């Protein structure tokens, strides 16, 4: 319902708008933060019950953890968190660029001095933070169903592993924002990407459990390396082995971010050169 | 850097072709702009007119760095739109208007702060500017309302505030009053000359001839990608010679009259509309006074409610040019 | 019959337009196989001895319900979103056919997903079908296809009333995943949920399906199959009554655009 008409505008006095002299790097952070705030505020006002949609799956994973040994139960509890973050992040980020296009925002965002990628990255972080809340609920369900049979022998290494895994996950899911536009076909392959990430990201079982023929696929998934580091952390494994896996996860994350950058360049070119609206 | 005596916008032989790609076979080519040229002086209001699909929006998109030209050159503030887009963007703003381009689930203030962040303004300055501009566009007190609850006119004002956040030198308005109620449209029309008075250069596209006539210093009419007229509103109106118009109000419908009137030598065209309950014919002629007697004779006294002679409007000039 | 065929095709084409070739490959081919892999491997990792048998069979059959339910619910939701509902309400078209035709094109998709899931289990997870009673397995699959359709048509009515179809789809799908024995044995559920499981599609069909895999014969699962078919008819008829009720209420309240 539209509100009543406001009073007529006054004559403009724009002299008080001082020139903007923000240093570029700080300006980039302002843009990322602005994207984060926008997405978080909008997300908080959408009542789509997405968090509720993820919880039944957590019950299933909790069921798997009921009779599992403590190491497996711990892995499943942590994995439930990451699996949910992946499920949410890849879906929302995947459609973020096309959503912006549908709302008529791309024209303004593409002319930002910070670039379209920085804008979408800020929004992606808000998505990840929102997904993390649902992920924590899921992890709590699994933990409770497993009788809180959780064991973490190296807490500091564990926290670092968590961070590496989160970075790997965000980097991977962020690629899908421009990729969905670049490859076309819109929603087409998305429903397969989500279980694909769970199977080959090693969130809920170590990738060594995959059939031999399928294992090489997971070598290219950053999350698989970070989850591998997580297993070693839970099993009190040697630090050099853990460090090696962190390095692999972070290096692959950088590769994925470069891929995202390249895809964003293609998207920008598509808008500026072909005149595409990105909505088809 | 543009100097005071250089035009703020210069368009030279600008051409834009869209390619509709196909996987198999040759794609289709659409020529949206076919070599247009014009210039816009600093601190003036320039109107681009033309029918749907004429190339107005394509021109604006090229000038706002949102589309690259196929050939030709366009410069804004002395900078090339294709080569120096990054330098142009912080100094221009565009308002495409309508319901899109704003987040409905955010408040007016939140929208402005987001757009300020896109332009790398620090959050404190963004907040200050948002409040100042909301007040100036007459939305003070509505800044905390969700935009989905705004009327079309309020959204258009918010678009304008968004455009002014970075205090641009050049403002592009693409059909800014389309879909607005008469009050909202009038308010917006009042603001445009006010911006020009503060040294901003404004380029707007519109379908409303009276709007262009009232607020534009100069106009260009584009049709099928070509520029077919350019000048002040008065020059355009006078561009079809010593033309004049007869308004003929009838008592009875007389559709067969149109063909007969069009055959009178010197008649340019005959348009049929209504004036209250009566049919109305608008006859444009090289010199309407010369054909008035013939018209009265063909219509017949019994059927003639009223006949009057006048100068053509910009709309009639436009219709003649694009037909 | 030509009218029905046209409605089956057009409701699919018009209301399910996003399913292009990447969509078919992603949703009908890859997703069901990945789901089978995911649950089977997690089950094995968690030390469930019967993981392969339980989860491959359960997820293969569930893939039919998932695809039919998702497809049918979307046809209702998009009918509302695209604003064609008033046109349908103003037309003399048979309401029964416009209701039932929505499921037609999703059967082949469901059956393809099922077949690939079963094949994936054999090729990648070492699943052994040597004892399977194939005719009985096919009957069980068809029974589940019909009961899923009835369930989907009833749930689809809700999508005419409520804008967020993904939540409806997700929650109705989750009920099948959690409560029908696809992953969690019925005996592990609390008694009230076991009672709910008896009136959900899939529960009885899955029992017959598992028996067919183990080489059982039709006589042993006649009751289960009969229950599955009774549920299919019951859900379908309740769904159709709801569909008509929504139309009548929409006319009465003047809220045709929004369902009611």
Task: Describe this structure as you would to a colleague.
The complex is a heterotrimer of chains A (280), B (323) and C (260). By secondary structure, chain A is mainly alpha-helical. In chain A, 71% of the residues lie in helices and 0% in strands. In chain A, helix 3 packs antiparallel against helix 7. The model of chain A has no long low-confidence stretch (mean pLDDT 84). Helix content of chain B is 33%, strand content 30%. Chain B contains 11 helices and 14 strands. In chain B, a hairpin with a 2-residue loop joins strand 12 and strand 13. The mean pLDDT of chain B is 86. Chain C is mainly α. In chain C, helix 7 packs antiparallel against helix 8 and helix 7 (134-161) runs antiparallel to helix 10. Chain C starts with a helix and ends in a 7-residue tail after the last helix. The mean pLDDT of chain C is 81. The chains are: A mainly alpha (280), B alpha/beta (323), C mainly alpha (260). Chains in contact: A-B, A-C.
Question: Secondary structure elements and their pairing?
Answer:
The complex is a heterotrimer of chains A (280), B (323) and C (260).
Chain A: H1 24-45, H2 50-65, H3 70-102, H4 106-110, H5 116-145, H6 155-183, H7 190-200, H8 215-218, H9 222-234, H10 239-274
Chain B: E1 9-20, E2 28-40, E3 45-49, H1 56-63, E4 71-76, E5 79-80, H2 85-88, E6 92-95, H3 108-118, H4 123-136, H5 152-164, E7 170-174, H6 182-197, E8 201-206, H7 209-215, E9 218-223, E10 226-231, H8 233-237, E11 244-250, H9 255-262, E12 267-275, E13 278-285, H10 288-299, E14 304-310, H11 314-322
Helix pairs in contact in B: 3-4, 4-5
Chain C: H1 2-15, H2 21-45, H3 51-81, H4 85-90, H5 95-100, H6 106-124, H7 134-161, H8 165-179, H9 191-198, H10 203-213, H11 222-253
Shape of chain B: globular
Low-confidence stretches of chain C: none
Mean pLDDT of chain B: 86
Order of helices and strands of chain B: EEEHEEHEHHHEHEHEEHEHEEHEH
Report strand % of chain B: 25-35%
Which structural class do you get from the secondary structure elements of chain B? alpha/beta
Average pLDDT, all residues of chain C: 81
Distance between the termini of chain B: 40 Å
Shape of chain C: globular
* Strand arrangement, major sheet of chain B: 6-7-8-3-9-10
Strands of chain B, total number: 14
Report, as a whole number of angstroms, the end-to-end distance of chain C.
Answer: 31 Å
Instruction: Name the poorly predicted regions of chain B.
Output: none
SSE series of chain C:
HHHHHHHHHHH
Q: What composes the largest sheet of chain C?
A: none
Global structural class of chain C: mainly alpha
User: How many strands of chain C?
Assistant: 0
């Amino acid at each position: 319902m539209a509100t009543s008409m406001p009073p007529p505008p006054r004559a403009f006095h724009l002299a008080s708008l001082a020139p903007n002299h923000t240093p570029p790097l700080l300006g980039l952070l302002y843009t990322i933060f602005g994207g984060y705030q926008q997405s978080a505020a909008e997300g908080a006002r959408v009542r789509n019950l997405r968090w509720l949609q993820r919880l039944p799956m957590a019950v299933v994973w909790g069921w798997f953890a009921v009779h599992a040994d403590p190491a497996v139960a711990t892995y499943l509890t942590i994995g439930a968190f990451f699996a949910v973050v992946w499920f949410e992040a890849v879906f929302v980020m995947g459609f973020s660029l096309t959503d912006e296009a549908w709302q008529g925002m791309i024209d303004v965002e593409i002319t930002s001095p910070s670039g379209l990628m920085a804008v979408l990255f800020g929004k992606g972080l808000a998505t990840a933070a929102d997904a993390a809340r649902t992920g924590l609920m899921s992890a709590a369900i699994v933990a409770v169903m497993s009788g809180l049979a959780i064991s973490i022998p190296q807490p500091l290494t564990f926290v670092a592993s968590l961070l590496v895994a989160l970075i790997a996950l965000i980097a991977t899911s962020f690629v899908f924002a421009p990729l969905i536009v670049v490859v076309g076909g819109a929603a087409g392959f998305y429903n397969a990407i989500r279980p694909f990430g769970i199977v080959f990201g090693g969130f809920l079982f170590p990738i060594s459990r995959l059939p031999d023929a399928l294992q090489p696929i997971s070598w290219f998934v950053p999350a698989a390396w970070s989850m591998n580091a997580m297993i070693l952390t839970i099993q009190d494994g040697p630090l050099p082995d853990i460090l090696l896996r962190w390095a692999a996860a972070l290096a692959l994350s950088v590769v994925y971010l470069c891929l995202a950058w390249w895809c964003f360049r293609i998207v920008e070119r598509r808008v500026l050169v072909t005149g595409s609206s990105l909505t088809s | 850097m543009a100097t005071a005596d250089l035009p703020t916008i210069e368009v030279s032989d600008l051409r834009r072709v869209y390619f509709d790609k196909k996987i198999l076979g040759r794609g289709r080519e659409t020529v949206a702009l076919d070599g247009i040229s014009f210039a816009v002086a600093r601190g003036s209001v320039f109107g681009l007119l033309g029918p749907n699909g004429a190339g107005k929006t394509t021109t604006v998109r090229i000038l706002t760095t949102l589309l690259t030209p196929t050939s030709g050159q366009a410069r804004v503030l002395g900078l090339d739109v294709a080569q120096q887009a990054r330098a142009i963007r912080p100094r221009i703003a565009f308002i495409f208007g309508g319901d899109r381009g704003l987040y409905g689930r955010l408040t007016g203030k939140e929208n402005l702060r987001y757009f300020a962040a896109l332009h790398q303004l620090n959050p404190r300055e963004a907040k200050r500017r948002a409040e100042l501009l909301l007040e100036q566009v007459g939305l003070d007190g509505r800044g905390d309302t969700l935009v989905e609850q705004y009327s079309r006119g309020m959204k258009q004002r918010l678009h304008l505030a968004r455009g002014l956040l970075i205090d641009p030198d050049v403002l592009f308005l693409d059909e800014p009053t389309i879909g607005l109620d008469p009050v909202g449209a009038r308010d917006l029309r009042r603001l445009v000359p006010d911006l020009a008075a503060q040294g901003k250069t404004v380029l707007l596209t519109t379908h409303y001839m009276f709007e262009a006539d009232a607020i534009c210093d100069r106009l260009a009419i584009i049709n099928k990608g070509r520029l077919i007229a350019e000048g002040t509103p008065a020059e355009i109106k006078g561009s079809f010679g010593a033309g004049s118009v007869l308004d003929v109000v009838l008592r009875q419908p007389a559709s067969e009259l149109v063909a007969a009137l069009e055959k009178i030598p010197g008649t340019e065209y005959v348009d049929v509309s209504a004036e209250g309950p009566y049919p109305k014919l608008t006859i444009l002629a090289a010199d309407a006074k010369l054909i008035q007697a013939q018209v009265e004779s063909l219509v017949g006294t019994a059927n003639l409610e009223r006949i009057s002679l006048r100068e053509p409007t910009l709309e009639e000039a436009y219709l003649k040019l694009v037909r | 019959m030509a009218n029905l065929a046209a409605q089956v095709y057009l409701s699919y084409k018009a209301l399910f337009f996003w399913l292009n070739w990447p969509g078919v490959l992603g949703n009908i081919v890859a997703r069901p196989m990945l789901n089978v892999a995911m649950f089977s491997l997690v089950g094995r990792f968690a030390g469930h001895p019967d993981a392969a048998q339980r989860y491959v069979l359960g997820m293969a059959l569930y893939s039919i319900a998932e695809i039919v339910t998702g497809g049918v619910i979307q046809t209702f939701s998009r009918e509302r979103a695209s604003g064609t509902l008033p046109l349908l309400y103003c037309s003399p078209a048979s309401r029964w056919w416009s209701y039932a035709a929505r499921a037609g094109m999703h059967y082949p998709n469901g059956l393809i997903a099922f077949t690939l899931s079963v094949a994936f289990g054999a090729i990648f997870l070492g699943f052994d079908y040597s004892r399977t009673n194939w005719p009985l397995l096919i009957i069980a699959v068809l029974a589940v296809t019909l009961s899923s359709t009835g369930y989907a048509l009833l749930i689809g009515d809700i999508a005419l009333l409520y804008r967020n179809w993904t939540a409806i789809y997700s929650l109705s799908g989750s009920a099948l995943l959690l409560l029908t024995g696809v992953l969690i044995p019925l005996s592990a559920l609390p008694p009230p949920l076991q009672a709910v499981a008896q009136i959900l599609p899939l529960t009885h069909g899955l029992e017959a399906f598992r028996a067919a895999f183990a080489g059982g014969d039709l006589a042993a699962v006649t009751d289960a199959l009969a229950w599955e078919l009774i549920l299919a008819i019951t859900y379908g008829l309740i769904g159709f009554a709801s569909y008509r009720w929504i139309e009548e209420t929409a006319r009465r309240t003047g809220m045709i655009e929004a369902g009611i």
